[in-house]
Description:
By secondary structure, chain A is α/β, with parallel strands linked by helices.
Amino acid sequence: MGRTLAEKVWDDHVVRRAEGEPDLLFIDLHLLHEVTSPQAFDGLRQNGRQVRRLDLTIATEDHNTPTLDIDKPIADPVSRAQLETLRKNCAEFGVRLHPLGDVEQGVVHVVGPQLGLTQPGTTVVCGDSHTSTHGAFGALAFGIGTSQVEHVLATQTLPLARPKTMAITVDGELPEDVTAKDLILAIIAKIGTGGGQGYILEYRGSAIEKLSMEARMTICNMSIEAGARAGMIAPDETTFAYLKGRDHAPEGEDWDAAVAYWKTLKTDEDAVFDAEVIIDAAELAPFVTWGTNPGQGAPLSAHVPDPASYEDASERNAAEKALEYMGLTAGQPLRDIKVDTVFVGSCTNGRIEDLRAVAGIIGGRKVADGVRMLVVPGSVRVALQAVEEGLDKVFKEAGAEWRHAGCSMCLGMNPDQLAPGERSASTSNRNFEGRQGKGGRTHLVSPQVAAATAVLGHLASPADLYDVATPVGV
Amino acid sequence: MEAFTTHTGRAVPLRRSNVDTDQIIPAHWLKKVTRDGFEDGLFEAWRKDSEFVLNRPERQGASVLVAGPDFGTGSSREHAVWALQNYGFKTVISSRFADIFRGNSLKNGLLTVVLDQKTVDALWELTEADPTAEITVDLGSRKVLAAGIDADFELDENARWRLLNGLDDISLTLQNEADIAAYEAARPAFKPRTITA
Ligand code: SF4
């Protein structure tokens, strides 16, 4: 019987397989950041162990880094301690590190791909749930806990039981202004935040094949929000073109050998998935969340749902709680929701293509009065590219704040936070209670919706800007 | 990780049920960057009360925690196990543990022993009547022994073998060093490297 993409990559990394035991899997790339690594290094130290493969390990600073005054000492003692500990640990053990101020610094899931380290058919792990991002290259990539970080540092392997596989097939043409973000939000709303539990998702179909690498990363990034272990997309010419010439991409004969291997990484015709979901791209529309988990979303043209309309008691309860926290009333048109803050950034939508999309909409327009807009590039490289293309000027002229690279308001571990009761339209991936600051209210949106929302001051799509005849709220 | 064969020590009776991991180690302790030094955070809120059992002079140096049912519920933080170990506990006895906590404890060499509530009650009474009374937890024979108490407990063979030999996940994997080395030797040359020689 044929195998799925996930099964092929899994099988190619089995170091040891024994009856009644989890497979021992080899890890090709281990990404580290300051939050989940300190105790792992401490564990190594306590047991007198070394990092087994320094050449497969790389660290960057992202969660705690400020996006302003990066040359000044970090005020928050906890943030400072985490960054200093990472620097000390990397120096002691010899791990390659890109600290704040370095040209390769940035959100760990933006850095790996842009360096060309994330490659098809590799296993990628990081002590961060959004490691699923790297699956866009046909890599098997997943987040791990701190004890597993220690395990990988010491052995370059992980004992794991193989998850099941789920195909998410998206055929057809995405309508104008409908992006990868809208697609993944719609998928999560459809299958639920637990729908992917125990599975590796494979996104496939003609609509997926047409997407750029950036867009594919946006989709795989949020696989975890559907509860999945990982998300993958089969590598193709788009993948190879993205990788060619990058710092760590293979060269010469190695490139040819790599491409030959990468081309085998497709789900076989006769392979069987454990579950399947089919989505028609043409039916999708700009999508936003109204609740406090990424599955509580709806098309922008819809209304805040009535909790009473849910048959399932726990869903009804969750919706009631969400509306209360979000300060929304059932039946309110989503387009009527006014925001205080617009955040563009994160490992979901902080790449150059996202910034270009935002600039394309906001260029020549102004951020609405009373709205604060933060544009935070996913990495220093993204920032430099944006500056080269003059995007930073576009943002500043529109009245947005152009910041330094990092996770920033995606999780508010640094000073970029919402105040209690403040409402944001955010291109990040989690709208949990308090995620962007205590009491903050988050609506997850695409970069395009974020830009239009910044201009109009309420949730909006680019079409609302072009078509002034469309009355708000319809 | 330290091997666990048998342990004898004085006990702390914790007559509370549903002790969640946030009570074992409050969230603000999670900002620490080491694996040790969590002893002062253990049951922090309760320890502000001088009458709390852990604060009693006769309980100093005790190493066996006898807790109420559903110990270790809530957030999956491994720090809860570290805090108990840092404080000096070698084993925790309860009639029921939360799954994740139990998994974390056995991974870290803290033996969590499940006994029926009647036996737990007997242990409480014993140690409350005589704080110097010693309790022995013998993993070899899977028995808990104390004056007037002789109770068997279950533990799956794999977890028991690992504890008896002091094998954490990493040492277990390293027993397959030859397999890892063979895999590494056969990896294709085109695979990415973060550091180029
Ligand atoms: S950008 Fe947000 S989701 Fe991504 S790694 Fe940083 S905190 Fe996590």
